[in-house]
Structures are given as structure tokens and as C-alpha cells.
Amino acid sequence: MLSAPFARRHFLQSLAGVGAALALGAPGAGATAHAATLADTRPLDAAAYRSLRRYAGTPFGHVAYMDQGTGPDALFLHGFPLNSFQWRGAIDRLSAHRRCLAPDFLGLGYSRVPEGQAVTPDVQVRMLVAFLDGVGANSVDIVASDSGGAVAQLFATRHPKRVRSLLLTNCDTEPDSPPPALQPVLEMARAGTFADRWLARWVADKELARGPTGLGGQTYSDPTRPTDEALDYYLGPLVSSPRRKDLVHAYTLGLDPNPLAGIEKELRRVTVPARIVWGTADTIFDPKGGDYLAGVLPNCQGVRHLPQAKLFFPEEYPDVIAEEARKLWGVTA
Question: What are 10-56's pLDDT values in tens digits?
């Protein structure tokens, strides 16, 4: 586990998008505080994000993560096949209010997974417990998307005392996990071809990746939004070796059978404040999934529907995530 004093400069974008304020990050809690400084006030690009990456040693492997900001701890859980870079815009806007912890799941991103280590949702929950212990985070506000939302639900039901609030965007729900749209991906993963047939081709041909059947066309409101550097940062490590391709397939197959089977009864006991933000243009998950979660979580503060938004809208609309998180956390901009 890497450790050293951590400090940085933080860009906080105003609601109008034109004002800026600088905040100095204090040392992170626990043994993993890390020295890194942003040289300017621009939002994090891939190079800056990479320079701030650090690793936490856990029994499940070395977990790559981002640690920015001060205050109570917030945990950001990304989707598939993305990594914590998905949350860079939200982190820019929220690290004045929270210590933002954004790990890469086992099998995705830049986390280093030992040979033979399982990467199922159940294991991801156990990894998160070890990760939070290692970085000195006892209880967290969770912000989660896609398969990260499934892990968030499992975490909240199994470790309710470690969760202060839940902000969920489009993600698996018990009635819609895995969603029917994932079946072709599951079939390719079972055949061991998903990484080569889709991910590697998207890395090699960015316009294909942004096309109607690519990552951009399927999961972004604006299919041009995943930039070349973002596509490389997300997908490059997943196809960098046969071992990494196998891990991607293992992560995919961990989503079937339904990892949330039977969870509704347990979710009804999760009493922390919750909020749902749901993109209803999503073609992967049921557009009614947000309303379902709002009806199950007993302390849900309501659902915000985004009619233009697809699955990975948190990357495109970080202002929405920041606005909803601040409301849920009871802080002002």
C-alpha cells in the first residue's frame, strides 16, 4: 500500500459554470494518504488522473483508486466496462465537501488481481470492506452507477452501519439483473470472445467505439462524448494481455445468475437517506428501474428523471451528480 502526505489544488466549478474557487486538500485519513499536486485548475484529464492514482493493498489484490478532497468519506462505484475515471467530473465538484474515494473494481480498470482471485459482485463487496479499512474510512456516502449500483445495494444490505447515504443512477435492480440487453455480452464472455470482438476493436477504432453499436452509441446521450483518451483509459488495460481479457470475461460472467436475487426484502430495511437519478433514454436498463428502487428503499428522497440521458450519463452530466449529492448530503455549493 502506498502512503505519503497528500495535498492538492482543487477546481470547484460554480453553478453558472464560470466562477472558480481554490481549496487545499488536507492529508487523507488512514495510512494511505498520498502526496500529489494538481498544477492547475483544469478538470482532471486522463494524464492528471493517472498521475494521482494510487494502490491499496488488500487480501484480494492491489486496488487502484483515486483519493481527493476533505471531509466525511464518499465512495464512488463505477460501471462496466469503465473504471473510476467515470467520476472525475463529479469528484472535481464534490471534493470540497467530501473525501472522494473512487476505486477500480477487481477485473476492471487498473486494479491488480492475483491469479485465481474471483471477481464476482460478492467478492467486490468484501474487497470494498478491506479497501475502506485500509484507507481509514469507516462510514461512507455511496454514489454508484450500473454494476457498481448492484454492488452498492449488496454493500448497503450487508454493512448498513458503514453507509450514511445512497445516490444511485441507472443500475441493476432485482427484477432487472442481468438486463436482457446484456445477454449478447454474456454469450461472448462465455465463449471467451467479448474482449476481442468488442473492446479491442473499440480501442483500435475510436469511431467504431462512438458509433451506434459502440460504447458511445449504446450508453452515452452524446455518442461523441467518450474521447479518444477516455476510451483508451477505460478499455486499454482490459485488452492489454490474455490475462486481463480473462478477467473481463470473469467479471462479466459474475453478473449472471442474478447477484441481487432476494435482495428486495433486505433493501426495505436500509433506512439511510437515498436518492435516485435515472436516465430514461437508457436502452440497457428498464426505464422504470429508478421508480422501483424508490418504492423499495424506505428513506428514498425521490427520483429525478433525465429524459435525454443514457446509462453512462454521470460522466456527461457531472453537475447533475454534484447537485443531487449536495442535496442528499445537506451541504451547499
Answer: 333 322 232 322 222 222 333 333 223 222 334 578 999 999 999 99
Asked if residue 114 lies in contact with residue 123, where contact means CB atoms within 8 angstroms, the answer is no
Residue 308: other Cβ atoms inside 10 A = 12
CB of 246 closer than 8 Å to CB of 103: no
Q: Which residues pair with 300 in a beta bridge?
A: 274
| Positions of the chain with pLDDT lower than 50, given as ranges | 1-42
- How far apart CA 240 and CA 229 sit, in angstroms, is 16
> What does the alpha-carbon distance between residue 276 and residue 166 come to, in Å, rounded to a whole number?
8
Query: Look-up: residue for cell 488512514?
Result: 30
pLDDT digits (tens, 9 = 90+) for 184-228: 999 999 999 999 999 999 999 999 999 999 999 999 999 998 999
Query: Strands, DSSP E only, in the chain?
Result: 9-13, 20-24, 54-58, 61-68, 73-77, 99-103, 140-146, 163-171, 274-279, 300-306
Evaluate whether 137 touches 29 at the Cβ level (below 8 Å): yes
Q: What secondary structure letter does DSSP report for 175?
A: G
Instruction: Extract the runs of DSSP E, i.e. beta strands, from 96-235.
Output: 99-103, 140-146, 163-171
Model's pTM, two decimal places? 0.88
Task: Return the H-helix or E-strand segment holding 287.
Answer: none
Residue 112 is classified by DSSP as: B
Determine the Cα–Cα distance for residues 283 and 178; give it in Å rounded to an integer.
13
> Cα separation of 215 and 224, whole Å?
10
d(CA 210, CA 224): 6
CA 279 vs CA 1, 255, 300, 308, 315: distances in Å: 37, 21, 17, 7, 12
Residue 111: CA count within 13 A, CB half-sphere = 33
Residue 327 belongs to what H/E stretch? helix 318-329
Decide if 39 contacts 100 (C-beta within 8 A). Answer: no
